[in-house]
Amino acid sequence: MITLKILVGVAHGAIKNAGDYLIYKRGFNLLKETLGNTVEFVEIKRWIPFNNKNLHLDAVVNTLKNEN
Fold first, then answer.
1. Residue 1 resides in a domain
2. Does the residue 58 lie in any domain?
3. How does DSSP classify residue 46?
4. Would you give per-residue pLDDT tens digits along the chain (68 residues)?
5. Of 53, 52, 5, which is closest to residue 32 (Cα–Cα)?
6. Is residue 67 part of a domain?
7. What domain count does the chain have?
8. Count of other CB atoms within 10 angstroms of residue 14
9. Does residue 68 lie within any of the structural domains?
10. Which of 8, 62, 10, 14 shows the shortest CA–CA distance to 40?
11. Containing structural domain, residue 57
């Protein structure tokens, strides 16, 4: 039996300070711990252009910070 994993990209912009990065990394690790058996998560740095065609992602999660 072949088991296929869902491939999900997690986009973040934690480039400005270490606190943002640590919060993002903790959330990313929680996602992997919780859903890691069925979902494979890929880190996407928003400041680096990426092409979904190269990754063949099933979904993208964008961790935008509310600036208001």
1. no
2. yes
3. T
4. 666 778 888 888 777 778 888 888 898 899 899 987 888 888 888 888 776 666 677 777 776 555 44
5. 5
6. no
7. 1
8. 19
9. no
10. 8
11. 6-62
